[in-house]
Write a structure and sequence with these properties.
By secondary structure, this protein is an alpha+beta fold. 18% of the residues lie in helices and 32% in strands. It starts with 6 loop residues before the first helix and ends in a 5-residue tail after the last strand. It binds 1-hydroxynaphthalene-2-carboxylic acid (1HN).
């Protein structure tokens, strides 16, 4: 039996061993196990707010710089300050603000990432999904499911601006990103507007319809309806202590999330309501439609964020927060909760001790 190596010896032997295994594309797990398997998630993205009133003019300036045909899409991506160079709003989600001017079109294409649009400003812009046009108004929520042909246009007045959220980081992680341009700069034949709503979104389904695992066949969720839902329910519902009155956009044929990877919600907070502490592994992108208030972020470098209509803010995974509404607020949000639920890893913690 050899003698126990002296401490100097063991260090030297380890260094030599690590260099040798490294040259054979081997890495000892004991050197990184503790970094990887932390008690709680180690999150790089940071809480952050983009002020729409501060940025609006800058966004509109891009109309003079590039047109949407050359650009494919005229978008400023919202890059999280904790993810420099990554072009992402959270570790899993891309977000951007897209601008269309009257008379412009954005060419038809399709891709494996799923996209959602949340409309900030529009009077006469549209998105077409597989040829079916839907007109865009502020507060509308529209999805373009994976691999559906989509193009945008603007036949109305003034600038149209919307928030795009895509699951691109998830698709890149799986090396499953494909993109295709519609042949000859064309687009699918226009179908009857509202066809999918009447076919799938009216509490009836065509006989023989087979529920898929994919996204909702109803792709447009107008704010006219969402706002009416909140108006009807706000006086008769006890607000949830962590969420206020919070409704999820669903696939009406399955009852599940509207998209397989991204969950989307609209919540109502009465004036003066302060939510209880809450955190979730679903890093979330928010866009208030109405109201002003403060997001409290215990333990974060930035202890609070102010919000007003059309600002965009991010609350990263596992960050405790409370939302204190100064005035009656309606807040849209989107996160990777749907993907996490499907994978069986989604977590939440409710209550003041969340941190
Ligand atoms: C895209 O296709 C759109 O169709 C917007 O409007 C933003 C960001 C990354 C990749 C594809 C759109 C996008 C995008």
């Amino acid at each position: 039996m050899s003698a126990k190596p002296k401490p100097d010896d063991i260090e030297a032997r380890r260094s030599e061993y690590y260099a040798r295994v490294g040259a054979s594309q081997l890495v000892p797990l004991w050197l990184f196990f503790k970094d990887w398997f932390t008690l709680e998630p180690h999150v790089s993205s940071l809480p952050y707010r983009w002020s729409y009133s501060d940025l609006r003019e800058t966004i509109l300036e891009s109309a003079a710089i590039v047109d949407p045909v050359e650009a494919e899409r005229r978008v400023l991506a919202l890059e999280n300050p904790g993810l420099p160079g990554r072009r992402l709003a959270t570790e899993s989600l891309y977000a951007g603000l897209q601008l269309m001017m009257p008379g412009e079109i954005a060419p038809c294409h399709r891709h494996s990432p799923t996209a959602l649009r949340f409309v900030l400003e529009s009077d006469g812009a549209y998105t077409a999904v597989n040829g079916e046009r839907t007109w865009m108004s502020p507060g509308d929520f529209i999805i373009t499911p994976a691999w559906t042909w989509h193009d945008h246009g603007h036949e109305g007045e003034g600038p149209a601006v919307w928030l795009d959220v895509l699951d691109v980081a998830m698709m890149h992680l799986f090396n499953a990103t494909f993109t295709e341009h519609y042949p000859d700069d064309g687009a699918p034949e226009r179908t009857e507007p509202l066809d999918t709503r009447y076919r799938y979104g009216m509490n009836m389904l065509p006989v023989g319809y087979e529920r898929g695992q994919g996204a909702s066949p109803v792709f447009s969720y107008p704010y006219e309806r969402t706002g009416e839902v909140l108006d009807r329910l706000k006086n008769t519902s006890e607000p949830d202590r962590c969420h206020g009155l919070k409704m999820e956009y669903v696939d009406p044929t399955s009852g599940g999330p509207a998209m397989p990877t991204i969950s989307a919600f609209m919540q109502f907070l009465p004036a003066g309501f302060r939510t209880d502490g809450y955190r979730t592994t679903a890093g979330t992108i928010y866009c208030p439609v109405e109201g002003t208030g403060t997001v409290e972020l215990p333990g974060a470098e930035t202890p609070s964020i102010r919000y007003e209509p059309w600002d965009i803010f991010v609350i990263p995974s596992w960050q405790e927060f409370r939302i204190a509404a100064d005035t009656e607020s309606r807040i849209f949000s989107a996160s990777d909760q749907a993907a996490q639920v499907r994978l069986g890893i989604w977590r939440e913690q409710r209550g003041a001790d969340a941190g």
